[in-house]
Amino acid sequence: MYTGYFWILFALAMLVSSIGFKNYVWFISLGYGFSIAAAGLLMLILFGKTLTLGTIICCVIFFLYGCRLGGYLAYRELKSTSYKKNMVGEIKDGNTVSLGGKLAIWISCALLYAAQVSPVFFRMKNVANGIAADNAWVFIGAIVMVCGITLESAADIQKNKAKKVNPRRWVDTGLFRIVRCPNYLGEMIFWTGVLLSGIGAVKGWQWLVCALGYSGIIFVMFSGARRLEVRQNKNYGKDPEYQKYVKTVPILLPFVPLYSVEKYKWLVA
Predict the structure, then answer these.
(1) Burial (CB count <10 Å: 0-12, 13-18, 19+), residue 95
(2) 163 to 82, 156, 231: CA distances (angstroms)
């Protein structure tokens, strides 16, 4: 039972992310944030009669996370002239992408978004079928998710404040002293929490879907870090202070001496 619900989730992600046909980058920005928010809301509706405290919490977190991220990205996309200027040439504008290419990215993004929330979805499905129940992991996962949102939000706020003070300098204060991409780190922590929330409830082959969603978003975060590094090297590469910063502060993972991913061209997405 409830097997078809996953495809309803996928169809919703396709509907929301179709905004990318208006602006190509919105497939992976606005479409991403608002797809996750919509997924959280939809799961509350689909499993309304079998909801548990843990799954309710996770779905509410999805909704709040997606609205925050989608709202932030919408403001940046529509209002920030400096962001638009920096992104010229960094991300495809869609003008040279064929209809077939756009359809492929649309479908693959929607599948990724559905797979990302699948640990919570499969927990809800298995609870509804009577083969799983809430355990400590769903609450541990929810706590980790909140930690990820908090880190990502704080990093975004700190970056915006720093850029207002000096828009021509890279950000190396606050959380940016720990890693150069703390917002991406927060994103990875969030989805790690989602994965943890499925322990003890997700069964068999379902873990494959969960793993694909998790590995997909981790790849996207490392790809984003590489894109940022390339852009910053182009803008600040000759500055000795910047060179010291990038050689002493890890790019994405704290306490892990990975200082550059620029050479990993397979991270291009």
Answers:
(1) exposed
(2) 10, 11, 16
Is the pLDDT score of 175 beyond 90? yes
Runs of H (alpha helix) within the chain = 5-17, 30-46, 53-79, 81-87, 99-116, 118-128, 136-165, 182-196, 206-236, 240-248
Predicted TM-score (pTM) of this structure: 0.93
Q: What is the mean pLDDT of the segment spanning 112-119? A: 98
Structural domain spans, the chain:
5-267
What percentage of the chain reaches a pLDDT higher than 90? 80
In angstroms, what CA-CA distances link 244 with 219, 232, 236, 238? 27, 13, 11, 11
What is the crossing angle of helices 5-17 and 30-46, to 10°?
150
Task: Say if CB 115 and CB 205 are below 8 A apart.
Answer: no
Cβ–Cβ < 8 Å for 126, 132:
yes
Residue 94: per-residue pLDDT? 65
